[in-house]
């Protein structure tokens, strides 16, 4: 066990955990933010995606000690009122079904658009390939990403 | 576990029946007097301040019932969806036994019943206003949460009327609105759960936290059917955070299993404890079970006559000339549900009392007092069970089983605190009931004139009913396993369908669209073979066998039009068609394919037509069909579940892959909602997809695909 300091959505948290524990469980069970999901635990599904210094990462496969004091953003930090362009587009396109994968999908899409303001189909496929939506909302996710890129100032 | 039959029956007219029952014994009126706020019926609550709550009894798992069920009530009650609060029910007694989602039944089974609930409440409010104003009810109308007078500018909000309305008799046969007056039904209104799912605020079972809660992971027998011999927890108990190691029993249909639960302060600690846990299993001979042997057994069983299902005309008496008949054999694999939210459940046993927090398709089966409901599996009184039913991160039939709930309760009985049991992805893949494989033997015979005069379909498979209950009668047909095959609308003078039971020790489950997701593949590919035999266009061949007023014919005609079927495709492209009607509904697809430079099939486009009779939210239906096609594509071309040395070989998404965005074809969905029988949404999009794809591939390669999964890479 060790004290780890985390910076999540610009707030600081100090938790006493196994340094090898994945960031995912720190976020969910120690910090208490439940928007980030567990789907596979082996970097295959993307449900656990958060931003680490702006980059999308799989929190299920990152030991918590490795991200101490770094800037982490979760779905809760994207906006507190669904006002992020990606969230708005997700609502306009009515993307979710069960919704379980969507936090991860949205975090990946937000990271993509911050690097590439107008991605084409191939860019979107490449950025989103690591994400599984068992409900099969891919056509809508793609449409929503395009919409968000158009809506951006 | 409720049997599928039972829950389909329960989800039929049960909700309305309950409401009527409540009326005749005065429940609704009594509720007005006893409680404030008051209930018109258990499904609608209107408070004096005007707040309107509609209770949704159909768990939301992505299919859209969180909106579609309240929408039916709100439409007739004359309130907008923005003006209501929706509360998900959790198996509470007053909402009856129909609190379950499955079989695509929520809307098709309750379309009028839910509307009558809203209409009855509205009639009572109108009556109350008319009495207040001293005018006739014909001079009043309801709009936007108020009753208005046609004679003056006067209006009263529902909240101001409930006291008077509550003293009135609840009308038994309230008048329903004309379709042309609908403001909600048939409109693509944004769903209320979407903002929650976009912000991360939607709470799934796995997200619930209760005070003082601990976590558990369960080590289960890697060999299916293995039993627990002993365990040594010494090393486990030394892991920081580990609290206790206990036996964890559960029930899946007729099967009983034991695992070992590691209970800890955090899930991570529990997992660390499980890594060093020593368990000995008795494998009971099942360690020698290999799927490939079992599949050979199924092939051999196809020689048996089996049990007769449908017998139209007399297939045996039909004499076909040599060369005028076709025979074929099709095989499908086992598949996993892979709900993205793994199984999980929180249980808290406090003396006689039990509280459960979980995502389930069957709240009624958890709190119910029926003989197969949860109480009977855990030895507790149904009235002592409280459920908190959460958003479901995928159901697909997996969460019709309550094995993960029973297991959590059995663990919770051995510790004071509430315990959250989380199944890892690997646990979920390797210890969940699977969709069984079905093998199909088909025969068709033509007259000299080239008319299809005989058709036989024999299904060889394990039995669903044998898996869910102890008393399956092997001399009878398992209706689930031959689902839909005897009910196709094709007019063929001699039809015989039959079933051959195969003994199996692995629990099997309903998987979205149940057996239709497998037998439709065999059936509709074979229809294509028959069309090819007599050199007919596969879509015209089907149309010619359909009665002019059959729903199937309407669907195929629409599909023909929207897919431009009659327009020849450019060279190098092909297309295939398939349809399927079964208990859940009716849908048909045309799939267009081409071959890429590296000799791989590319799916260029999928056209889908679904017939619903009536549609609540067209955009949501489209979402469902798009998703159904993606799911059906996974089942068609990705590895299924296999068993080697008694163990499920696949464990996670690296070896049991799912379709991803870059593999998803373009999809165009058309909805028929022109009246007629009301049909379901959640499942019908799956069965016709794999056969339409396989038929499309045949059209371009000339090779018949007779086994799922199949490779898009051509050899
Ligand atoms: S849970 Fe991390 S990628 Fe699946
Ligand atoms: S919406 Fe269900 S997994 Fe994506």
Automatic annotation (TrEMBL), chain A:
Where would you find the membrane-spanning parts of this chain?
none
* One Pfam family of this chain: Fer2_2
GO molecular function annotations of the record: 2 iron, 2 sulfur cluster binding; metal ion binding; oxidoreductase activity
The record, for InterPro entries, names: 2Fe-2S-bd, 2Fe-2S-bd_dom_sf, 2Fe-2S_ferredoxin-like_sf, 2Fe-2S_ferredoxin-type, 2Fe2S_fd_BS, Beta-grasp_dom_sf, Diverse_Oxidoreductases
Alphabetized, the UniProt keywords read: 2Fe-2S, Iron, Iron-sulfur, Metal-binding, Oxidoreductase
> What range(s) does the 2Fe-2S ferredoxin-type domain occupy?
2-78
Q: Which PANTHER family match?
A: BLR6218 PROTEIN, OXIDOREDUCTASE WITH IRON-SULFUR SUBUNIT
**Protein name as annotated:** (2Fe-2S)-binding protein
Q: Identify the species of origin.
A: Flavobacterium yafengii
UniProtKB/TrEMBL annotation, chain B:
* Listed SMART domains: Ald_Xan_dh_C (SM01008)
Keywords of the record, alphabetical order, are:
Signal
Q: Provide the GO MF annotations for this entry.
A: oxidoreductase activity
Quote the protein name from its UniProt record: Molybdopterin-dependent oxidoreductase
Range of residues in the leader sequence = 1-30
What InterPro entries has UniProt attached to this entry?
Answer: Ald_Oxase/Xan_DH_a/b, AldOxase/xan_DH_MoCoBD1, AldOxase/xan_DH_MoCoBD2, AldOxase/xan_DH_Mopterin-bd_sf, N-heterocyclic_Hydroxylase, OxRdtase_Mopterin-bd_su_IorB, TAT_signal
Report the PROSITE patterns cross-referenced here. Answer: TAT
> Which positions fall inside the Aldehyde oxidase/xanthine dehydrogenase a/b hammerhead domain?
199-285
